[in-house]
């Protein structure tokens, strides 16, 4: 698990989340823990490290 920080595109708050870097590709929807708006999160990992991270508002 790796802690990753990003900014919510809805409320602009800095958010921390744990990412399982043993999974090479992940794409899912999660609500922002501050404003509760939906976020589409895409993560690419290689060899235990995050090589791509994208957050889009829905």
Structure, explained:
This protein has 58 residues and is an all-beta fold. It has one domain. 0% of the residues lie in helices and 64% in strands. It has no helices and five strands. It has strands spanning 2-7, 14-19, 25-31, 38-46, 49-57. The strands form two sheets. Strands 3-4-5 form a three-stranded antiparallel β-sheet, with no helix packed on it. The chain has a two-stranded antiparallel sheet with strand order 1-2. A hairpin with a 2-residue loop joins strand 4 (38-46) and strand 5. The mean pLDDT is 96.
List the helices and strands and how they pair.
Layout: E1 2-7, E2 14-19, E3 25-31, E4 38-46, E5 49-57
Antiparallel strand pairs: 1-2, 3-4, 4-5
Number of domains: 1
Q: CA-to-CA gap between the ends?
A: 26 Å
Class per helix and strand makeup: mainly beta
Number of helices: 0
The ordered H/E elements are: EEEEE
Radius of gyration: 11 Å
Protein name: CPXCG motif-containing cysteine-rich protein
């Amino acid at each position: 698990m790796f802690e990753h920080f990003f900014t919510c595109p809805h409320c602009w708050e800095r958010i921390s989340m744990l990412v399982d870097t043993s999974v090479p590709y992940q794409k899912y929807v999660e609500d922002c823990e501050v404003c509760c708006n939906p976020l589409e999160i895409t993560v690419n990992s290689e060899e235990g490290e995050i090589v791509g991270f994208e957050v889009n508002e829905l």
